[in-house]
Write the structure tokens for this entry.
Amino acid sequence: MKHLLKLSDLTTAEITDILNLADQLKFEKKHSIKHHYLEGKTLGMIFSKSSTRTRVSFEVGMYDLGGHALFLSANDLQIGRGEPVEDTARVLSRYLDGIMIRTYAQSEVEMLAQYGSIPIINGLTDYCHPCQILADLLTIREHRGTIAGNKLCYIGDGNNMANSYIVGGIKMGMDVTVACPKGYEPDAEIMKWAYESGHFNCTTNVLEAAENADVVCTDVWASMGQESEAAMRREIFKGYCVNNEVMERAKNDAMVLHCLPAHRGEEIMADVFEAHANEIFDEAENRLHAQKAVLVMCMGNK
Ligand code: CP
Ligand code: NVA
């Protein structure tokens, strides 16, 4: 695996290899077994958007692996003043061993990979959030024993998270349903691919989507970059909320995932969040383990 640009680039076997390596790395960390698979390597982390989990888990992950991480705010780089991505990619390839980037356009991530000569890892774009879904798959496997055969239901905006849940979920053998308001569906090409798999449905009906679900997921109604639409979206998305009524439709032992940050009273009610906090914070922890696996696969000799 050279890069992690989007989940649709990966095979089911590659995703499984990442999850298995993540389990190993998690075990090694828990038992203080040294795992310096990236000794002497440096990761550049370019951020055009805010982050808590992604920034901290990548930085700690590189330290755990014996390497080093550099935080690069896009505002402080020349890229923020218009230096072309093509040039930035070629320059940074001369200094670094890998780049993690969080930005708006997926094309920027793809361009870095095209012009650079080092591994590029997508730390979230408007289109997808592959690192998050790898952590979610790891969490589902830990809590439910297997991934394939589960039904995953996503309620809310057809955004980067929805796109990645669809691709990652179906590739790993889950049935995926999405409930979102009309006009806020996930990416059209991803939905076409998903419908062709025979394991997908998109509806405006939240309760129908949640029926018999093993995993119930949601995400914010207004993503980073959509702050000016937040008030309008609060009206449009009313009802697209993981509440007790939704959980009653899901299986009795259904788990709840939220990539965080969460807006209680909007996409998830506080009581549901707290009842499933154990799963949600395992999910947040698993960002670290899943990403370390991605780093080793892309930047190491494994
Ligand atoms: N879930 C997630 O990507 O969190 P951050 O925005 O804090 O990195
Ligand atoms: N959809 C959210 C995810 C944050 C991790 C956003 O893009 O802001």
